Amino acid sequence: MDAEVIIVGGGPVGLVMAGLLASRNITCILLDAAEEINVTMPAHPDSRALAISPASRNILAAIDLWSRLPGDRVGCFRRMHVWDENGQGEIFFNGEDINQPALGYIVEQRLLQTTIEPILACLPALEIHHGQAVSALVPEKNSLGVRTADRIFSARLVIAADGAASLTRDLAGIVTRRNDYRQTALACVARFADGHGEVARQRFLTDGPLALLPMAGPEQCGIVWSTSTQYAELLHAMNLENFHRALGQRSEHCLGEALESGPRTLFPLQRIEAEDYCRERFVLIGDAAHNIHPLAGMGANLGMLDAACLAQVLNAAREKNKDLGGLHILRRYERWRRLENRIMSMVMEGFKYLFEEQTPPLPMLRNAGLDITDSIAPLKHWLMRQAMGLSGDLPEAARQNGGVKNKVSIKE
Ligand SMILES: Cc1cc2nc3c(=O)[nH]c(=O)nc-3n(C[C@H](O)[C@H](O)[C@H](O)COP(=O)(O)OP(=O)(O)OC[C@H]3O[C@@H](n4cnc5c(N)ncnc54)[C@H](O)[C@@H]3O)c2cc1C
After folding, report:
1. I want to staple 63 with a disulfide (CB 3.0 to 4.6 A). Which of 19, 237, 334, 399 is the partner?
2. Is 190 domain-assigned?
3. Residue 30 lies in a domain
4. Do the domain assignments include residue 392?
């Protein structure tokens, strides 16, 4: 056996999983299909900016990674404004109302990965191998092997964090439920004439939501524009002038004119839900288990909660000298996360359809609903806590000051 645990996939969720286990001296091998990451700090912002919830910040802090992110590249949003293109309804959220300094943070996805991977690579209990695409699962006596082009790696437990198109999920025979949204998200970074004032903004347009996420630069925003695939392709192909005009118009010039923008990337949108999260010696986390609409920026946050819950279950099993790949242990994690993830996925889908429906009287009711919600403080506070990952059955690492035992100790 090569290690106690193999993690397939070194995206944000696989990396956090590796950090949570290896910092507790559970030996791990992380395999990623992509060639070696470029550890030099990306000079220009990545096209995909992630909204990181306070719960995910706590998880990263629990393994001493949060403070390692370059402060001048991490944005923060203290307030949020949501409104509908088809009506006057709107809702404002303010972290101060529930004594939270920030509703969330904005971090470029590539920056997050290129910062934390080299730090984790120093953990004595962790080996990271790039250019190792897993192509088969190889059942063995008391362990499970994964085949790459070079060799077979084996461990007591294989954790699949290989994203929405997870091959290992299919190889394990886990079926999925899917809904193709026939929408595509266009992501990029743009600079506007007016400062964002640390407010996250989302305007629900008829064909999908347009989010402006405040980045570290005072006028710089991460754009996530979910729309029909046809329109997304049109936006993608536009010259800068036309794209900036469209961005300004469709965001109601809430930040003035768009002045500059970086490369645009398209992401086809669908819901994918795994029916089961585990098999004997095999378990799913992150997008491999659930891929949801990005309208509330929850995908990576749910994945980090998966990682923290699974780490807590595995740590407890290890303290009792149990086999980490045992199905009854993995089922504990599945019971903890599957329903919660499914509810979040359905809620996102519900919001998507609710805001797209234009048959009267729905737009009027929807706008009235926004205004009514805005005026009921307890309901708003509850919604904020849900979105921030501060309520529900949280793993220890996601609670404030939780998981301080998990400090990363770096190899000499
Ligand atoms: C436009 C957009 C905006 C978003 N905004 C937010 C946001 O604001 N907040 C948020 O929380 N989430 C957001 N999300 C969702 C978030 O990006 C995903 O949930 C997150 O990337 C999932 O991480 P992951 O590690 O599970 O999978 P991935 O990021 O997909 O990583 C999978 C990894 O597995 C590797 N891999 C794949 N196959 C194999 C194989 N066979 N063998 C070995 N390695 C393999 C890949 O190389 C990759 O490194 C957004 C998504 C989109 C599309």
Report:
1. 19
2. no
3. yes
4. no
Atom index in ligand 1 nearest the CA of residue 187 equals 1
Contact 42, 111 (CB under 8 A): yes
The tens digit of pLDDT for each residue in 366-404 reads 777 777 777 787 887 888 888 888 888 899 999 975 443
* Residue span of the structural domain in which 363 resides: 3-73+108-178+271-382
CATH number at residue 33: 3.50.50.60
Total of domains in the chain: 1
- The length of the chain, given as a count of residues: 412
175 Cα distance to chain centroid: 22
CA distances to 90, 311, 312 from 316, in Å: 45, 9, 6
Out of 35, 287, 295, 304, mutate this one to test ligand 1's pocket (max ligand atoms within 8 Å of CB): namely: 287
Residue-wise pLDDT for 156-212, tens only, equals 999 999 999 999 999 999 999 998 888 999 999 999 999 999 999 999 999 999 999
Contact 85, 334 (CB under 8 A): no
- Pick from 13, 29, 301 the residue to mutate for probing ligand 1's pocket: most ligand atoms within 8 Å of its CB: 13
